[in-house]
UniProtKB/TrEMBL annotation:
This is NAD(P)-dependent dehydrogenase (Short-subunit alcohol dehydrogenase family). InterPro entries: NAD(P)-bd_dom_sf, Sc_DH/Rdtase_CS, SDR_fam. The lineage of its organism: Bacteria, Pseudomonadati, Bacteroidota, Cytophagia, Cytophagales. Belongs to the short-chain dehydrogenases/reductases (SDR) family. It comes from Algoriphagus antarcticus. It comes from the Bacteria.
Amino acid sequence: MRLLDKIIIVTGSTMGIGKSIAKKAVSEGAKVIIHGLEEELGTQVVSEIGEENARLHIEDISNEGAAQRLVDLAIKQWGRLDAIVNNAALVVPSNISTTDKAFLNRVLEVNTIAPFQLIQAALPFLTESRGAVLNIGSVNAWSGEPNLLAYSISKGALMTMTRNLGDTLIRENGVRVNQINPGWVLTEKEIERKRAHGLADSWYEDLPALYAPAGRILWPEEIAAAAIYWLSDESGPISGQVMDLEQYPMIGRNAPKDTSTIANK
């Protein structure tokens, strides 16, 4: 039990990577706050992992006071807080022509500012427990795809915040801050996006080797397995680190010759 008796907030955990992290955390002995926008899906997650192990909070993470309400719920239910996972995010297509100020502000509010506010709200309790923050970024933080401009900007900013606070908070508060950058992951949302693009539901079964050298893309459970290390005491004093979770190097890789591929991760 690598997370025995730890109390963890996982934002965006009604589906996808967040759901997998929450379920894996409970299997390792933690109790979790499930958060998201989809009440029916959230209720199902709580049912799957056991009502004694989870509480559900449905709210847009960018709402004023939402971060404090998540922290208050954890403290009210279990009296402590050991870790937060900033996973909730808007993954929306945009480029230089379609990204206006309002759109960019909205993406930044959810993907970058809301995680910062949750860290702020949780910090007094994480200081008490000498806890951990795990930010869920994206390999798009390094530069991003042509049609993921605003999203890539937001994840790049999150990565810089992780490195900055990872240094500051371990020194001043004993709180570790780290980040994982998943690559292409087979989530429910990814399947929906590809369906909206007109692809068959079996699109992921035959991918170009350029994007799936191993013959498939990542599973949410594999991201969750990696997350447990950063949330547990096994990672010791390590802080301010960003780890890419993809099956090929992001920097120095040859660009594709065919730009009409399926990717758009």
